[in-house]
Amino acid sequence: MNLVKWFRKNNTKVMAVVVIVLMIGFIGGSSLTYLLRGRGNTNKKIAFYDNNIGIKSYDLMVAQQELDILEALQIGTILKMLQDPIDQTPNLQSLILGELLFSNQRPSQEVIAHIQQTAVKYQNRINRKQINDLYKLSASNFYYWFLLDKEAEKAGFKVEKDTARSFLSQALPRATGMYYSQFIGNMMRSIKISEDKILTVTGKLLAVLQFSHSICSGEDITIKQLKNLASSQMENVDIELVRFNSEKFINNLETPTEQQISEQYEKYKGFFPNEITSENPYGFGYKLPNRVQLEYMAVKLDDIKKIIKEPTFEEQSQFYNNNIKSNSSDPNYTPKPFSEVADEITDYLIQEKITQKAESILQEARTLADGSLQDFNDAELDKLSTEERKEIAGNYTNIAEQLSEKYNIKIYQDITGELSAEDIQTDNLLSKLYLEGYVSELSLARIVFGLEQFNMNLLGSYESIKPQIYVSVVPIKDKSSSGKIMATIRVVKAINSSIPESVDQTFSTKAFIFDPNEEDKKENTFSIKENVIKDVKCFAAMDTAKTKANEFLELAATQEDQVWENVIDKFNELYEQEYPSDSNSSLAEDSNEPPFKLEEHNSLTKLSKETLLTIIHNQDNPSSEGIKNLLTKESQFLDLIFSLAPHDSNAPEFKPEVVEFKPDLSYYIIKNISLNHLWKENYERAKSYLAYKKDLSESQSLALDQFNPANILKRMNFRFANDTEESSEQEAITEDE
User: Fold this and answer.
1) How far is CA 332 from CA 323, 326, 647, 727, 735, in A?
2) 462 pLDDT band (50/70/90 cuts)?
3) CB 287 within 8 A of CB 497
4) Which of 7, 83, 85, 352 is the most exposed place for a label (fewest CB within 10 A)?
5) pTM recorded for the entire structure
6) Phi, psi of 298 (to 5 degrees)
7) Cβ pair 365, 297 in contact under 8 A
8) Is the Cβ–Cβ distance between 563 and 456 less than 8 Å?
9) CA-to-CA distance for 447 and 185, rounded, in angstroms?
10) Which of 629, 631, 639, 628 is nearest to 661 (CA)?
11) How do residues 601-656 score in pLDDT, each as one tens digit?
12) What backbone torsions phi and psi does residue 523 show, to the nearest 5 degrees?
């Protein structure tokens, strides 16, 4: 058939195709789903928001078009660059909005790290769960853009085109290296769009940001709050003290009766250790934290070194040519001669071969262990009990023996005891083990306590790892300076925090073992009863601690200030005679540390309630409950110290005194204390900036809640046309990212 005649005959069809192609080019390839799914009626209401306001297919196509315009403007990059005008700190509201609209659920490593660092530095109340939730989009990002735009519009926020033009005129050169007229002109020509449309969409974005700021920073700080904030940051104390810990005086006490043990246990079994309340002022507690039992196969890298081949001269030369000889674009660059760097190259290549070989062996171990489990999807795995998983999974002991024989090296294999996050984080080896994560290194504790049953939100959906019972994780590396081992591990038992079964409950807390000489050292047993007995003794010894503290103070009162050390030496000598060391005491570990010493602490500042809440909120730590309790105890101690400090410059000279601090089960002799006052002049100079910083911290802290995808849908009362169509509609208009 003649081509011209064919075009004349089918010109209507051809033009339709051309229009579709042009439309796709303009509003983005992502909208191809709409066109191919034949929704036909663009006026059909597919969902509702607010008070039954309908959302049409056409509305969402326009929203997608507007997002594509913003993306062409490189707004995602611009939003990351915005800073607070006074403090020059990153603007988290714009940063987070950019991630919501332009990340496509694949977060930026740089952005996540930036949010975390900013939260710590400026004490924003932001935790990992909030960051993880930002990337849990239940629909395409243009849904959220549509709703945010309507929310700002309803609230009366509107940004004029002149303001939008001014914003782009300042932002585009920094983001693109091009002036406004050049960039916008190119954009208008390339996608056939008017400047008016560009400025309108930019104005909508700025209105969303303005509305966000007004919502997140709407609470005025009171004068009382401001004074407390200034006091906690600018007022501090210097103190000298001697601690009389009641545990120092328990060695000669009789073992408590079974009735005393039972009463102590029953009263405090529902508290975590150091959980201080009005009912539990001493912080007794026997509730058990979350725990895991790990099985591992590991290799020592020194053993791997024995089975790899030395780098050949050809390998060394190739590395030299690829990485040293041509590693600079500077024409005047002169590389070091091969002979000078040959040893360094050899060392590097050996280490690289060791790492590759160790990873290869452990990957093979995982394949053998998880072979059958890999045939199950997540839903199917969730239905399997721990025992069923154990039956399906490969046997680590057999696999270790098989690979040891195959590679002629020792594959270490064992099962740990029941370890808490604190056990892992305080162990010399376990605390240094990690897995490469999407954003940063994932500690062993974060990995194993990232199990869904613990519900701790330690791992984001963007991480490649999803820990599950009896599923191996590899390669676990050692970041210590020696880098001794590499391992594959799996959780074989996970236990949620609970009240102990009884006061007689015990369990092993054995960690990794690589040296037969460490067997006795590592075979630790945790006993509820032993902890109860120690607490009963410590409580009973409080009277002795108080008596000894008063004896010390009376003796010190007869001495000159400069010879308090002589009194301390005498007490240490008497202590060793009256209370010989008990190897079972936790204090026995500090054998080189004298029982009593004069401690000097300078520039101690209060932990204000707000600061304490911020620190606790930001904990992304599997042992966060314990950290919270310790911070609470520290805050109470600082409050006690500040209450003792003379606040009036006309107050009489401070005289040493004995004070009780129940959470430490201790008495303290305060030798001297002085308060560095917050003077009115300093307060007046700082209060405006402190108020501004407080407002900035509050607004940035709430940004992740404001732009949380689930919160947006809830705030705007978003729902599909009817319940029966919800799943089909979602499938029809939500892209597969």
Assistant:
1) 17, 12, 67, 64, 52
2) confident
3) yes
4) 85
5) 0.77
6) -140, 155
7) yes
8) no
9) 50
10) 639
11) 988 887 766 666 666 666 668 888 888 888 889 989 988 998 888 877 666 778 88
12) -80, 70
- HEC secondary structure over 708-733: CHHHHHHHCCCEECCHHHHHHHHHHH
474, containing H or E segment: strand 473-478
- Maximum C-alpha span of the chain: 120
Amino acid, single-letter form, for residue 693: K
How many Å is the Cα radius of gyration of the chain?
33
Token pair recorded at residue 569: 């030496």
Tell me the pLDDT tens digit for each residue of 410-459.
Answer: 999 999 999 999 999 999 899 999 998 877 788 999 999 999 899 887 88
- Two tokens, residue 208: 């969303």
Measured CA to CA, the distance from residue 533 to residue 264 in angstroms comes to 9
Tokens for 440, please give them.
């940063």
Instruction: Quote the CA–CA distance of 676 and 687 in Å, as a whole number.
Output: 18
Indicate the pairing of strand 291-300 with strand 236-245: unpaired
598-605/525-527 β-pairing: unpaired
Residues 140/716, Cβ–Cβ less than 8 Å? no
pLDDT of residue 117: 74
Distances from the Cα of 120 to the Cα of 53, 124, 227, 614, angstroms: 41, 7, 23, 9
